[in-house]
Write a sequence for this structure.
């Protein structure tokens, strides 16, 4: 299995990507194509003393920074690392692409180069969240901002197949993120999506409220990319704020400071259970190829885990299964689609 | 100042409401009208040995439970405690109403009996959130689910006046909850709202991402009632989940268990800084009267603080100021309004 790595993405430069690649090579039977500027990549590989023949460099002269408009990528950045890496999947030179760069740019590249799976209207990013009981996936967390009910239904189908095959859950419980349990609660789009999901063959458990996202009530939580993105980032921000407030209280008290020594073990385990790095990247589902999107602040470990997950996805038949399920669901005529986030 | 208390609401029955009322009487120069079934209220007042002449009982024969459809209240529950309590504000017998019951029922009662402030299209619930730097308010958190850009603009105006007069901030920083800082990021409605807010006279600081909600970047965070409600409940759920996971890790380790004794002080202070009970209720802004909505699980302390806040609001001129600002903002013709959450 060959995996293309967008080596120029990521807030922390090349190092975490290259180090993550090396860690992956130790554990996995994969070949890695580092896509980026040769003049930067070659010295980095020398620095980490990488002589593994399974790593190759594929030169790309341009980069896309985090604040660049994704729409520009298709027009002006066709030699950027993310575009070139995704194109390797299109041409069959790689079976998956992994990027920690500009999320919008990764989506645009996948959308334009790989296209969507037949029948899929819009792609969705599926993020893994820690819950009290284990993990759950939430989709979409940022690919499609304005969604129709039909598109939410399709996200549910994609999330269902992903949870079945990647999380080994025979009958994933699918929930719709909303503001109350009853079918009548929600906005116009979610109320219609509730109806579609209720009629579907999925194991639909109904609406899931915000307070239940982390309780493990559902394995797959469906929402539009706007709500999902805000939800994910609010969670990140709240966890950070709670940590800061707790630490300031702890440091203000002698007993508190003393207790820190005893708390190291539990705190480390809490971090491990809730650290996004453990989950690797989030797949962009609905496109015709494996595309794994990582957090901009990804550590080497997060990159390694994302490569691992991309490898599993590339070996599986997820795309075929999604195509089959979507075809089965298409009993009603297609509704017009709103714009994608990055257009 | 007379305040009507919906005594039959709340998940924990009468006791927290009655006890909160007594606490408020100790601290405030207010009169309280407990609205509910006389046969339940009289023994409860005897139990707590209340002889304060500033407390009166106003009989209401019906109750609205937490799962009842709010739409039924106006039709079939006109002698319910929430409807009767709100009506006391309408008739001028009370200057504010406080309820910890069914939020939808409180909104419907206020909407139908008090009406909206002239020019205001839809009401919004303004919740107070703890941040690293202090507090912020988020609105709407559940009154108006499908919002137009114009309505978000109005929420911003209402939140601005509230923060100015209740939080003593001369120039509140108003942010729009979205998925990126740039004006081009968001869904169709928020992108249009961004434009309206940019052109307004408010101190608009632009889009606020989920990760910044708890960092204290903005004093007023504007969003529709669907997003706000999910955001609030996700935060509640995550805080709860983190506490559970941390406690299970702590209890699994001898040193962890030992450290708990030292951590009591910091943990208690963390709780105080982040406890919703400290902030009392959330006002329903935009209606022609003071209506304070409390969490269903409100403690006596939360009720007491909500009464205190209602008292401040009833003494001030918030409704006049909102009416003035909304009138000034109405330079463009009104757009048709989507349905309210509870209709």
């Amino acid at each position: 299995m060959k995996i293309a790595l967008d080596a120029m993405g990521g807030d922390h430069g090349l190092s975490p990507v290259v180090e993550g690649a090396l860690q992956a090579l130790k554990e996995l039977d994969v070949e890695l194509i580092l896509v980026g500027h040769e003049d930067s990549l070659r010295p980095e590989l020398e620095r980490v003393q990488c002589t593994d023949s399974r790593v190759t460099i594929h030169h790309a002269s341009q980069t896309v920074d985090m604040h660049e408009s994704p729409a520009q990528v298709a027009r002006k950045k066709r030699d950027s690392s993310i575009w070139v890496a995704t194109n390797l999947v299109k041409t069959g030179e790689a079976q998956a692409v992994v990027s920690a760069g500009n999320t919008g740019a990764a989506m645009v590249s996948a959308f334009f180069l790989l296209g969507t799976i037949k029948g899929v209207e819009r792609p969705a990013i599926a993020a893994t969240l820690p819950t009290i009981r284990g993990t759950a996936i939430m989709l979409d967390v940022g690919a499609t901002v304005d969604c129709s009910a039909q598109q939410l239904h399709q996200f549910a189908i994609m999330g269902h197949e992903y949870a079945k095959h990647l999380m080994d859950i025979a009958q994933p419980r699918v929930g719709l993120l909303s503001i109350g349990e009853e079918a009548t609660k929600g906005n116009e789009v979610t109320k219609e999506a509730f109806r579609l999901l209720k009629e579907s063959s999925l194991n639909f458990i109904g609406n899931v409220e915000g307070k239940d996202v982390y309780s493990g009530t559902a394995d797959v939580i469906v929402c539009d990319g706007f709500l999902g993105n805000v939800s994910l980032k609010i969670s990140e921000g709240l966890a950070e704020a709670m940590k800061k407030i707790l630490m300031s209280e702890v440091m203000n008290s002698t007993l508190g400071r003393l207790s820190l020594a005893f708390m190291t073990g539990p705190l480390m385990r809490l971090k491990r259970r809730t650290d996004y790095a453990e989950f690797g990247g989030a797949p962009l589902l609905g496109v015709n190829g494996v595309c794994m999107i990582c957090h901009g602040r990804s550590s080497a470990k997060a990159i390694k885990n994302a490569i691992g997950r991309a490898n599993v996805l590339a070996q599986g038949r997820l795309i075929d299964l999604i195509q089959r399920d979507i075809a089965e669901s298409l009993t009603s005529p297609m509704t017009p689609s709103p714009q994608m986030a990055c257009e």
Confidence is low (pLDDT under 50) at residues 332-343 of chain A. Residues 178 and 209 of chain A are 5 Å apart (CA to CA).
